Amino acid sequence: MNCVAVVDYGLNNVQSVINALRRFNANVEVVRHGETSKCPDLLILPGVGSFGAGIDALSERKLDRFILRCADFGIPILGICLGMQMLGVASEESRGISGLGLVDSHALRLCGENIKVPHVGWNKTQIRRQDPIFNNLSGDPYMYYVHSYYLPECDDYSLAVTDHGVRFTSVLRQDNVWGVQFHPEKSADCGITLLRNFLLMTGE
Asked: How far is CA 3 from CA 6, 24, 26, 106, in A?
């Protein structure tokens, strides 16, 4: 069975993701330090909190190098919520701090008249481009969101978008790197289906 590495950088709560993966009897390995870890078959980067703190924690544990090494080897990577934003280049939340740079994206703060920040709750995820990550998902599924920053819609990487006063990227793909702004582990059957699809990316 494929090994799925879940990155734990000390500030993110990985247990809910692990519990969701184990519904499929996935072989889950929690990775807490980059130097002592071998590349898995798949990698998931959950994230909560601030961009700068997340990047600093990855760097302190050399997990940033581990993630980049996995990306270079073509291993499928999934970033969740802040984890997706950290795959990008930078964020307005933490100016001067560079992201992992796997996706050419810059996170912006949700703002504007009548826009509630943070964006919390269920919202429609509007699929714009088909991808195996959406297998067995019909229509535009509702997913559960908790965030104050977003990646703009972009033809280069946006697979799905969501409206919350502004339209933002809710699912992205850049080669072997995927990201979701919502929390699939908290998004009922649709989110669990998406996680299952990711587990199948290597043919298992």
From this structure: 10, 12, 7, 31
